[in-house]
Specification:
By secondary structure, this protein is mainly beta. The protein contains one helix and 26 strands. Strands 19, 21, 22, 24, 25 and 26 form a six-stranded mixed beta sheet that branches. Strands 12, 13, 15, 16 and 17 form a five-stranded antiparallel beta sheet that branches. A four-stranded antiparallel beta sheet has the order 5-4-8-9, with no helix packed on it.
Length: 353
């Protein structure tokens, strides 16, 4: 009896071992035994640096060590003022994943100079764990955007008696366009090298691309004058300047002989009239006017009588002393274009009783 039991033990042991082998084989082939998710790796490489503000930048990521990956990569870009990537990203974009390898973000259009920082992470799926974001300080994820070089042009206007210059700024960049100042400097006459101090300076604030006129200047000496315009630049735009040798930004003043004004008779009774004759107005306008002033009265003071010239370079008209008028010395003055800029003065007149 003992011999019989001993003879059957090896058979039962072999059966148990066979079952164990089968279970091991089924488990290895995925027959219901849980498998640990893979741990993918993500590296990023941002686009090239050195392009000016207003250019597009992007990030790329390489996904590796993933098992049949699906899902998406999430890219975020942070602005120059956010060196720790702690604030709200300027752009968040996702890219679908279908395999390990190279992937790109959407493009982002910059509007300021400085260092932009990209981060990227893989969101994971059933076979793969999610990855943490790449480091904010990783140089591979940084793009340095340069200041923009705007275009500055200027053109003068000489409309006697005033001269102005107009600067046109284009191609500037920034959250609200270029800022800073536009400084107009006028040199001359007899100073075509723009040496020393300008004879006139005008400063305008810049608020975006566009046209900026200077204040006006009235030259009194004949000769050639030259404008130089300087744009100050700002954190997003390089300073620019026109050059003194650009004669297209200059003008020439020819001083015409003064206008001539005569008034007769030189002695007038109250209620009488005087005939004023003028000639040689260099740049006549319909706003030129004649007025009778008491001698010593400022040009902006009260007048006794007045009339427009009609825009004629020369001509004559009568002016009547109203009744009553105070006896004394008077004169006729020729004024320019609705202003109190005096062009000529007659000899004194005497008003008698």
């Amino acid at each position: 009896m003992k011999t019989c039991l001993t003879a059957h033990r090896p058979t039962r042991l072999l059966t148990a071992l066979s079952v164990s082998v089968v279970v091991a084989i089924v488990g290895a082939s995925g027959g219901g035994v849980a498998r640990a998710a893979a741990n993918p790796l993500v590296t990023n490489q941002a686009s090239a640096s050195g392009f000016p503000a207003g250019s597009q930048i992007y990030d790329s990521a390489t996904l590796g060590n993933a098992v049949n990956p699906t899902g998406s990569l999430t890219f975020k870009v942070f602005g120059p003022e956010d060196a720790t990537c702690a604030g709200t990203p300027l752009l968040t974009t996702t890219t679908a994943v279908v395999a390990n390898g190279y992937h790109e973000s959407s493009r982002f259009t910059t509007n300021a100079a400085g260092t932009y920082r990209w981060t990227v992470f893989y969101g994971g799926d059933a076979n793969n764990n999610a990855t943490p974001p790449t480091l904010c300080g990783d140089p591979a994820g940084q793009v340095m955007v340069a200041r923009r070089v705007p275009v500055l042009n200027a053109s003068p206007t000489w409309a006697p008696p005033s001269a102005t210059d107009t600067a046109v700024l284009t191609g500037g960049s920034g959250p609200n366009g270029p800022t800073g100042t536009m400084t107009f400097k006028l040199y001359g006459p007899l100073n075509m090298t723009c040496a020393g101090l300008p004879i006139f300076t005008s400063v305008r604030n810049v608020a975006g691309n566009g046209s900026y006129p200077s204040e006006s200047f009235s030259p009194t000496v004949a000769g050639t004058y030259q404008w130089v315009v300087v744009y100050s630049g700002d954190t997003n735009n390089v300073a620019r300047s026109t050059i003194c040798s650009d004669t297209a930004n200059g003008f020439t003043v020819v001083v015409a002989p003064p206008a001539v004004l005569l008034a007769v008779p030189v002695a007038v009774l109250r209620g009488g009239t005087v005939t004023a004759s003028w000639s040689a107005i260099a740049a006549p306008t319909t706003g030129d006017w004649l007025a009778v002033y008491k001698v010593g009265t400022p040009d902006g003071g009260p007048v006794v009588a007045w009339k427009y010239t009609g825009g004629s370079k020369s001509g004559s008209t009568t002016l009547k002393f109203p009744w009553p008028s105070t006896p004394g010395s008077y004169e006729v003055r020729l004024m320019a274009d609705n202003t109190t800029r005096r062009l000529a003065t007659s000899l004194p007149l005497t008003l008698a009783w």
